[in-house]
């Protein structure tokens, strides 16, 4: 796996868009390999045999996704999780850096740059869900600002929608990141886009979903780093304790101030948007997100 990551990192660090695309596909293929049930490998068709290289990991047979319990017993996932604990092999950080470089590149006429940004965002969403401790990179102002920049009106609707999904993945069970989001005028950014007449209906629906998510009661933060172990039981515990683990590396008493009440967030949001009371009422009545991850 180190060889695959090394190759992918070299590619996404390039200024050549074709190499960046290849690197992002290599990462996407690795994530697919981890998340999809492998079963018995399907033999290659005659005349279409390919080298079993890291580059081809993106071409996986259609398989059902693995459940969390299966992931905890999966050798590829265990190795991936172990490698993410170190700075050298953390994929989310490298993809975020790649995304930052893409934003600084001149947009191509054929939309190739937008496609690379979309692929980067899709990869980031998967990485943050697979390895929750990687969310801490969005506790940095520059990385949070990166996501907010993608919500600017000049970006295409597909990028805006994908950025919102990554933003949700970055905030789940990580109150420190939510406070950084607020500090960086995230509420102003989101509500401005929501009220913009040129924002598409599809993006407005995503924004509304995000606001419902934001107003959800907060749980204590997920641990900043997972146990450096290959024990399946302990790895499952990392995910199961999302709603009860206390963030331990932000410094003592300040920890207690990381989480805010629904009423506090409701008041802040009402500074930018009307009828927030109605959103909260809907939230309490319909209980969205309750069948998904803990928030």
TrEMBL record:
Keywords, in A-Z order: Cell cycle, Cell division
This chain's source organism reads Bimuria novae-zelandiae CBS 107.79
Q: Where is the composition biased (Polar residues)?
A: 52-61
PANTHER family, per this entry? Answer: CELL DIVISION CONTROL PROTEIN 14
Q: Which domain of life is it from?
A: Eukaryota
Stated name of the protein: Cell division control protein 14
Question: Do you know which Pfam families this protein is assigned to?
Answer: CDC14
Residue ranges, annotated region (Disordered): 38-67, 243-263
Entries under InterPro entries matching the protein: ARM-type_fold (IPR016024), Cell_div_Cdc14 (IPR012535)
Q: Which GO terms describe its biological process?
A: cell division
- UniProt-listed SUPFAM superfamilies: ARM repeat
């Amino acid at each position: 796996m180190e060889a695959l990551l090394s190759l992918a990192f070299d590619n996404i660090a390039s200024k050549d868009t074709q190499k960046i695309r290849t690197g992002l596909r290599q990462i996407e293929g690795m994530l697919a390999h981890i998340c999809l049930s492998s079963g018995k490998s399907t033999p290659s068709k005659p005349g279409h045999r390919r080298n079993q290289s890291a580059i081809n990991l993106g071409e996986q047979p259609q398989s059902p996704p693995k459940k969390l319990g299966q992931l905890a017993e999966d050798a590829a996932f265990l190795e991936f999780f172990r490698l993410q604990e170190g700075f050298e092999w953390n994929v989310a950080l490298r993809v975020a850096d790649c995304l930052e470089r893409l934003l600084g590149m001149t947009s191509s006429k054929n939309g190739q740059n937008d496609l690379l940004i979309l692929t980067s965002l899709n990869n980031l969403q998967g990485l943050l869900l697979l390895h929750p401790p990687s969310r801490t990179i969005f506790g940095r102002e520059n990385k949070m600002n990166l996501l907010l920049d993608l919500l600017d009106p000049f970006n295409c609707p597909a990028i805006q929608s994908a950025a919102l999904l990554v933003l949700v993945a970055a905030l789940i069970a990580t109150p420190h990141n939510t406070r950084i989001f607020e500090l960086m005028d995230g509420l102003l950014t989101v509500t401005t886009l929501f009220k913009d007449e040129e924002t598409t209906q599809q993006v407005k629906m995503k924004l509304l979903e995000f606001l419902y998510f934001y107003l959800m009661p907060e749980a204590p933060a997920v641990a900043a780093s997972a146990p450096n172990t290959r024990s399946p039981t302990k790895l499952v515990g990392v995910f199961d304790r999302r709603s009860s683990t206390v963030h331990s590396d932000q410094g003592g008493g300040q920890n207690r101030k990381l989480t805010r009440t629904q009423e506090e967030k409701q008041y802040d949001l009402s500074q930018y948007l009307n009828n927030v009371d109605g959103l909260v009422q809907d939230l309490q009545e319909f209980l969205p997100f309750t069948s998904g991850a803990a928030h």
